[in-house]
Amino acid sequence: MKAIEIRDHRPEGKRHDRKLFKRIASAVAFTLALATACGIGWYAGAKLAYEQKASEIQKIHYVEEGETLWDIASELASDEQDVREVVYDLQKLNGIAPDADLKLGQKIVTAK
């Protein structure tokens, strides 16, 4: 039985270049994955901050049984503020007609 010898005739530099290419490709892939994760984290943080800011700007009141817009406005009005102005502001802000009835559970956006 004859033994067959297989020799690699490529120069030494070529094998080293392939390993170097794989390392560089791995580093680029890792960097892209890290940048993507950081971008997603930043976006989520910015979105949360926006939602918190929006919730500070406006409050939502849910209409209870028998409650009128006048009742809601009287709770929101300060001592020097006329309740009629607050009623008008609530109607304008929520698109409520002056003669409209409020429904149980209706959302009323109140600006503070």
Defining key terms:
112 residues; two-stranded antiparallel ribbon; mainly alpha; 2 strands
Total domain modules:
2
Structural class estimated from helices and strands:
mainly alpha
Helical stretch count? 3
What order do the SSEs take from the amino end to the carboxyl end, as H and E?
HEHHE
- Give the number of DSSP strands: 2
Quick one: biggest sheet? 2 strands, antiparallel
Radius of gyration: 34 Å
Average pLDDT, rounded to a whole number, is 84
Overall geometric form: rod-shaped
Q: Largest beta sheet: what is the strand line-up? A: 1-2
Terminal Cα span? 95 Å
What ranges have pLDDT less than 50 throughout 5 or more consecutive residues?
none
Q: Which percent range fits the helix content? A: 55-70%
Strand content: 5-15%
Please outline the helices and strands.
Layout (H helix, E strand, L loop, with lengths): L11 H46 E5 L6 H8 L6 H12 L12 E5 L1
Antiparallel strand pairs: 1-2
Helix pairs in contact: 2-3
Notes on the protein architecture:
This protein has 112 residues and is mostly helical. It is built from three helices and two strands, in the order H-E-H-H-E. It has helices at 12-57, 69-76, 83-94, and strands at 58-62, 107-111. It has a two-stranded antiparallel ribbon.
Question: How would you summarize what this structure contains?
Answer:
The chain has about 110 residues and is mainly alpha-helical. It is built from three helices and two strands, in the order H-E-H-H-E. The protein folds into two domains: about 10-55; about 65-110, no CATH class.
